[in-house]
Specification:
Blueprint lengths: L3 H17 L1 E8 L6 E5 L4 E4 L1 H4 L7 E8 L5 E10 L4 E9 L2 E6 L8 E2 L13 E8 L8 E9 L6 H9 L8 H9 L4 H6 L10 E4 L8 E8 L2 E9 L10 H9 L3 E3 L2 E3 L4 H7 L7 E12 L4 E12 L2 E4 H8 L8 H24 L8 E6 L5 E7 L3 H24 L4 E3 L8 H11 L1 H4 L6 H13 L3 H11 L6 E3 L23 H14 L9 H30 L6 E9 L3 E6 L5 E5 L9 E3 L4 E4 L2 E4 L3 E10 L4 E6 L13
Helix pairs in contact: 3-16, 4-6, 9-10
């Protein structure tokens, strides 16, 4: 037994050793193996051995001591757990001998988590379950979880939807207070519309897909000597939903209506979004009506808005309107023909104007997933966007551009911003431009003027190398974001942009309606705080992730019986390991691995994202033929291999 002097010496030794170590903080990052890494706050990265990784979860914030290994590599040893956000798991109930576990699907979480006997509830091995983490592994590496919900068995029809909704914690049912509020709104509509100007005489009609029931907007277009006046009536749910009311809180939580394959999670209860505030034909509805004067050259000369009431005359489909524009005079009612001809003329003028003065979006095909009774994919229908869809889209863009400018003047609202290249990628952008387009390398590409000039130059250039450069640069752009301050939308080539045309489906549009009303009434609408904006943005990101995860699961099932089939596709990703390819017929993504043979590795140009293999050259947006090689249902991935059709002179790499 040590005496007091020896204990003091030992304590001092430990203190001296600790003071000689380097400590740092960072976030844990998982891997496909049992080891991990810590991304340090100073930008460095440290290796986390398996014995340390088993004590933390990916995403944990930790303090570590650092040791430098040969060749300057850092190894981390855990010192303290500072924060852990992982408290919820979704996965499959696994039994191995006497052990019961959840096998979670969270990214980079490769371990199974123990389920103690009293924490299993009514769950059975094989079930999909949702669990609460009730014991963090930091102390001894032994994590535990408790079953909260039994999602269902894998063979249940629609289990993929139920699992995804649970995994991403998407709200399904509206709370009792919101439901009760929605039931009172029918009695409010008459009093709301009674005091408003009735603008039904302008001849509004909705133009949507045949199946659409939540109709946000109706259109009418009148001709004038200098061009046209575009009238857009937009559903006005804010007239019956007060800010911070139960319905408003539920809408904010959802952020938008989420359209999953075969299922919709609406932002507002169906009795509202599909009936009481939807612009149903022959029903008097409160509306925000925007009037936009468009000149013959497509420029916007002015706009104004008012809160009025309208009756839509007809519910027209994209198919009907397209047939009419293409020459089928009997496709639409007589009362709508002049307005639709004016809308077509407005569309042509605006599209031409935007092509010259801003940026046009790529016109890509859309894919409709059709499910069978088991809620698996029965077929996927590829649909090219028709003229009616483009006409309506141009009208909505004109509306949002006009209102975006007004909200920017008010310095209030929720704006859609796109700030151009990622800050951390700007060095790569400049390096590429110095080599290929030196006249643009020193320009400030965060400025709309210079970014617009660069993109237009590349779009108009016939050189395939310049086309590839444009594709490469687009991969370095930041994502579009919501902001409570006006900012440039470089993706559209605009100084400011804010959406108002979908208040039934998008909370930022709902909020912007309130700002516009407050401006008319000289009132004060509270601005969305940075915290509100972040919450909305996070909800949107989570919804997109959920939809993508569900689609990937359904796609993997759909492709199982197509192994060995060959399809045309386009390259969407180029890495040193291979190619990401999207199938033209189905819109399904898969990967072609080309680095499997260590004696025949591909040559990869990481700057221009060009890969050369077996004398074939591959780059972004290139058409290729691929064969379905395998499907991994657990990881929900589809693997392709290059088909023989690619061995053509046009694909041969140049020396």
């Amino acid at each position: 037994m040590l005496n007091s002097d020896a204990l003091k010496q030992l304590s001092q030794l430990k203190t001296d050793i600790r003071s000689s170590k380097e400590f740092a903080e960072g976030r844990v990052r998982g891997s496909n193996g049992k080891f991990g890494f810590v991304a340090l706050v100073d930008g460095r990265e440290a290796f986390l051995p398996p014995s340390q990784m088993e004590r933390v979860f990916p995403g944990d914030r930790v303090r570590v001591s650092l040791a430098e290994e040969p060749k300057g590599k850092l190894t981390a040893e855990l010192d303290a757990l500072l924060e852990s956000e992982l408290d919820y798991l979704v996965g499959r109930y696994i039994q191995r001998g006497q052990g019961h576990f959840i096998q979670p699907t969270q990214n980079a979480l490769t371990r199974w988590i123990f389920l103690p006997p009293k924490a299993r509830g009514k769950a059975q091995p094989g079930d999909f379950i949702a669990c609460k983490v009730n014991r963090h592994p930091f102390k001894d590496g032994r994590a535990q979880a408790r079953v909260e919900t039994v999602i269902g068995k894998p063979e249940i029809p629609g289990i993929e939807h139920a699992y995804t909704i649970a995994q991403y914690r998407l709200p399904e049912q509206f709370g009792p207070a919101a439901q009760k509020q929605s039931e009172t709104i029918a009695g409010q509509l008459a009093s709301v519309t009674a005091g408003r100007t009735d603008l039904s005489g302008l001849g509004f009609a909705t133009i949507d897909a045949e199946s659409t029931r939540d109709m946000d907007d109706a259109l009418a277009v009148s001709a004038r000597e200098e061009g046209w006046t575009l009238h857009i009536a937009i559903a006005d749910p804010t007239s019956v939903i007060d800010q911070d009311s139960p319905l408003d809180q539920e809408a904010f939580k959802r952020a938008h209506s989420l359209y999953l394959p075969g299922e919709t999670l609406p932002m507002l209860p169906c009795n509202l979004c599909e009936d009481l505030v939807s612009l149903i034909p022959e029903q008097l509805r409160p509306a925000l009506v925007v009037h936009i004067d468009i000149n013959n050259d497509g420029s916007i000369s002015g706009s104004q808005y008012e809160f009025a009431a309208i009756r839509s005359q007809y519910k027209l489909s994209y198919t009907q309107v397209s047939r009419f524009i293409e020459g089928d005079d009997a496709a639409v009612p007589e009362a709508q023909k002049e307005s639709l001809r004016n809308l077509a003329a407005t569309y042509k003028a605006r599209a031409a104007y935007r092509t010259t003065h801003s940026l046009a979006m790529e016109d890509r095909p859309e894919y409709e997933i059709c499910l069978n009774r088991q809620r698996k994919i029965e077929r996927i229908e590829r649909r090219e966007r028709n003229i009616a869809q483009r006409m309506v889209e141009e009208a909505m863009l004109a509306t949002n551009i006009s209102i975006g400018a007004k909200l920017a003047e008010l310095q209030r609202g929720c704006f859609s911003v796109h700030l151009g290249f990622r800050e951390e990628r700007m060095g790569e952008v400049k390096s590429l431009l110095k080599t290929l387009l030196p006249e643009y390398a020193e320009k400030d590409l965060d400025q709309l003027e210079h970014y617009l000039a660069l993109v237009k130059h590349l779009e108009s250039h016939g050189d395939p190398q310049m086309q590839n450069l444009l594709s490469v640069l687009k991969r370095m752009l930041r994502p579009g974001l919501l902001d409570n301050k006006a900012g440039a939308h470089l993706g559209l080539g605009l100084d400011a942009y804010a959406t108002v045309t979908s208040p039934i489906r998008k909370y930022n549009d709902l909020h912007n309606h309130r700002v516009l009303r407050a401006a008319i009434q000289k009132g004060d609408t509270p601005a969305l705080s940075d915290t509100h904006i972040e919450a909305l943005q996070n909800s949107l990101v989570r919804s997109r992730q959920a939809r993508r995860a569900l689609e990937q699961w359904l796609y993997a099932q759909f492709m199982q019986d197509k192994i060995g089939n060959t399809y045309a596709g386009r390259i969407t990703l180029v890495t040193g390991a291979g190619l990401g390819v999207r199938l033209d017929q189905f819109g399904i993504d898969g990967f072609v691995r080309l680095n499997g043979d260590k004696k025949n590795l591909p040559a990869f140009d990481g700057k221009l994202l060009i890969l050369t293999h077996n004398e074939q050259r591959f780059q972004l947006e290139q058409a290729v033929a691929v064969k379905v090689a395998s499907v991994d249902l657990d990881k929900r991935r589809v693997a392709f291999e290059l088909a023989l059709e690619n061995a053509q002179p046009g694909n041969t790499a140049k020396a």
